[in-house]
Amino acid sequence: MAGPVSVTPNIPLIEKYGVNGPRYTSYPSALNFSEAVADDAFDRAVRASNDELIPAPLSLYVHIPFCRTLCYYCGCHKKVTRNPGVVSGYLTALNREIERKGAMFDRDREVKQLHFGGGTPTFLNAVQRAGLMSSLARDFTLIDHADRDYGIEIDPRSVHPHELGQIASLGFNRVSFGVQDTNPAVQEAVNRVHSLEELELLVLNARRFGFKTVSFDLIYGLPRQTPASFMATLKTVTALNPDSLSVFSYAHLPALFPAQRLLSDRELPDAASRLAMFAETIAELQSAGYEYIGMDHFALPSSHLARARDRHDMHRCFQGYASGRHLDTLGLGVSAISRIGDGYYQNQKDLRAYAAAMDGNRLAIHRGYELSDGDCRVAAVIDELMCYGSLDKDAWSRTFQADFDRYFAHELLALTTLADDELVNVHEDRIDVTAQGRLFLRSIAACFDRQVRPEGSSYSSTV
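Below the sequence we write its predicted structure tokens.
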């Protein structure tokens, strides 16, 4: 999906397709995970991956669930605390998991990617960060050459700019700042107040200490946002010249995330305003030199994500879009999700249950999903459409030894309506998403989804 994109909000299409649906950070959605998948299934998956003729390198995701304050919009798995005992107990359990799972993987499987997510990873102090990295280096094969992709998420309020030097010295070379919005009124509404000066100094020091990639996370659809105010935020952040930006749509699900009940529904922008914000985001960021990557990511042409897209090495995952589509992902920490081969395996979501598993001679696998051959066929279609906005039917047919049109006859019929609305073009040998259709990628992908659950309220709005 390289190249400039021009879109305008279309109210009838918003009303037609603005339903609830999966974000397709996995297929099937995590809502389909089952507790029937346990430790022994994970063990079998790892053994099978080790036995591959050329085992895939590893991508490690380390979950640090702690935050000092509650951001009202947040749907992440986190624990708000200032109790150092809770943190030290968690790190003890996490180190046990690192040792236990590290012993399962062959040591010649290099860790090409490492990502610290949260919560707030920089909730940990310098000694705790260094200790955690030492544990990972002890039990996995970390690399130090230039093509490593070792990133950390940072809340601008949580770290002093000079601490970035210590973080870089641990091997991290990519940093993502959770900006969300620079407008003080919006920051106040969601209880995440930080100054532009703080952000500017962090970016300056990230460059100074040699981080290869500086990224920003933004969210549109938050309380008190307007298209005009969000445009001002975009101009402010692009002046800092980040290498990439993730611009996420706020998922308002107060039934699932109690903190969101603290937000005023009256202050939330409507669907038309949200789509206007995103349409303006596309135009503004493209005019600033960024390419539209996937559904909600933007990157400079020289960035690692744009290069990954160009070599067809980008995929959709729980962090959004990432490079390394052929890596095995190992999740470490409470609620973390692994993708080994064709299976998803999620750790316990409860801190006590997670720690109890680590105290015993067990893994912390709580639930998961092992993809059938049919699931793999659908997942390949959805990932191609979500990442590249195009699908080569013949290539799919060769990969899965099946006729695409025959296998997806029902799905192609469902796609007819979207084709009539000029969101997709269905050709004899391929499917292409149109410029307008890129705003409705989730609706397009849903046409192929054979596992979508009926509980629509458990999903966020697709627009």
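The mean pLDDT is 92.
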